[in-house]
Amino acid sequence: MNIAVAQSGGPTCAINASLVGVFRQALKTAEIDTVFGSINGIEGVYNDRLIILNSAITTNADMELLRQTPSTILGSCRCKLPDFRQDDNLYKKITATFDKHRISKFIYIGGNDSMDTVVKLSGYFEAIGRNDICVIGVPKTIDNDLCVTDHTPGFGSAAKYVASTVQEIIRDSRVYSIESVTIIEIMGRNAGWLTASTCMLRANGEIAPHLIYLPEGDFDVSRFVEDVRCEQAKHQAVIVAVSEGITIGDSDYPRELDAFGHVRQSGIGKQLEMVIANEIGCKVRSIELNVMQRCSSHICSKTDIDEAEQIGAAGLQAAMSGSTGKVMYFKRLSDIPYVVTIEEGNAADFANKEKPFPKKWITDRKNNVSDEAVRYFLPLIQGEVKTAMRNGMPLHFMLR
Amino acid sequence: MNIAVAQSGGPTCAINASLVGVFRQALKTAEIDTVFGSINGIEGVYNDRLIILNSAITTNADMELLRQTPSTILGSCRCKLPDFRQDDNLYKKITATFDKHRISKFIYIGGNDSMDTVVKLSGYFEAIGRNDICVIGVPKTIDNDLCVTDHTPGFGSAAKYVASTVQEIIRDSRVYSIESVTIIEIMGRNAGWLTASTCMLRANGEIAPHLIYLPEGDFDVSRFVEDVRCEQAKHQAVIVAVSEGITIGDSDYPRELDAFGHVRQSGIGKQLEMVIANEIGCKVRSIELNVMQRCSSHICSKTDIDEAEQIGAAGLQAAMSGSTGKVMYFKRLSDIPYVVTIEEGNAADFANKEKPFPKKWITDRKNNVSDEAVRYFLPLIQGEVKTAMRNGMPLHFMLR
Predict the structure, then answer these.
(1) What is the ipTM score, two decimals?
(2) How far apart, in whole angstroms, are the C-alpha atoms of residue B139 and residue B114?
(3) Shared-domain flag, residues B89 and B185
């Protein structure tokens, strides 16, 4: 029996670790002969662009390198399958590829859009009576906005990078003897999880960021200016963490839509910088953490990378036991000590849904988060992966 | 006898290590009683805002933490002293502070603007016959644009961050099966050193960045578009490293001047992004590495941090031997094995001057750098500092 694995959606530091999890578990499974990797997610399946992973990943050292390599070695896609009842063309191509290579287990690593593919594909195989093919989803996203699961692989590493970098920016912002405001724009689409995670700096005695704004917090520009003025009375260098998902009402700022109809947001940091320059007139700087927050493997969370590998392995185990149309997820049993189990849920409960940051953890004035959030976030960033270096730079796995 | 140390100019990852160098050397020197730290550079001296470092840095663990803490624990300034022949008011205040605290050695850690302070202050003490007070400069800048010295403390750590991060951005940029251009804007003011240092990725087998543009390379927009088109024929995801110091002719882009009359540049990445969007129309993204490139201590270069400490110690040794109006610098004897010595030069040779990236290392088409540059850069980023962590985040030294 052969299996296939693919990666989809936006890059993270942990997707390759989940691939390692699937691959290593396959090596342990006597019934499995070949592990195929699909190039560019589901696109590689319907275009029959598969590679044999057993030839690409040949040593334990390769697996270790893959674990510390960000993004997706197999490439990704933003493809959304049509409803097979309306158009089953791609589904027939996918089935043909699976049959050609005797693939009967398909593991799809991705976010909530990719879980839509798991729902549709498993639904199609069921509808045509192909119960011999199992489709399992393995979650990932730095946004942490997947339903059901306690958290998502990739989020912990992004949060560790963001907290560490914001701490360094705080040091940098305090050097001159003048008033300043630094606005740090953080990813997360419509969810404030990653921005909120900057609250973890409190655990190390840092008061900043003094203000934290999330899309879940009903942002208001004039209240924002008031908040900044208020913090300036207490701190010479005010640090603001702001989620990319925040919008300013009545703005003529142009927005783009991605293939899924999601608004592609950027620039709120720059917009707020201009607001402060106009309204307060002090030194102000906006900083976008940009793609670095999703690809900075050099400071990834060992907890995140280990869990990403484990949930990949669990995905294959579920498929081998005959499950299909399921997504693996984390269930947290305890914060201290941190205990999670890996469970399987229905893919339909994950697909196309977003889990917002809890309103109960947002302060009344909507400009910060509570200490319960610190307790939730902290376990996810623990531990460092010992990064293999060459010539003073991290070494990455590359497909030859 | 007491001594004073101060930090000036833009933050780097290595300024605190030079402070440790001065401090640790002072502890070894029997004649020295108290080490004062001046808050916000020379401003703290003429305003008599000094702290006793012996009370602030009390353990070896403190010194280790300081070495891994970015920016300047004593704060910085952008103050330029007037000519004392025209206005000696501040000079009299500085002398009063030194006399009040029996300070006879002053170590100033900073860039080419700060070395101007070393020239003027030592010149003043000489003019008024105060040969008992010695003023020594210790270099630092991520721009690497100081004359005389082989390289500057702070540059190696910035270059290690930039190379490692650009490598991660390369991984990130290649995930989708569409053509794209990624433009990474890198600091350096008028000098291309830090941008050029991305060439080090070649040592790890990376072809990207495919294009590297420096202020020293006569930038031309239409040639740039042609270069990008040419690279697109070979690579699906084209990576461009561009120095913040590059300007587009006839642009109406607004520029600001800092206190020294330097043009404060930003936004060339965004400008070139718009050029590509208009001229080629493919997916294009610009990324500013912003202040992260000067404060990301979590991936600092051990070579840089060690050298920064050594040159700080050497600065105090020079002052103790009676030198004044001097700046310490690195002289490279060999690339492989990497051997440098620490020398002293006249501060006037450093002050207000900039060392451009060598034209001989820029390719004929002015869109890349030669392998000789790789050989120059590589030794500067070697080694990692074992970062002390708390709660999954780097621990920083803080003044209590």
Answers:
(1) 0.95
(2) 9
(3) no
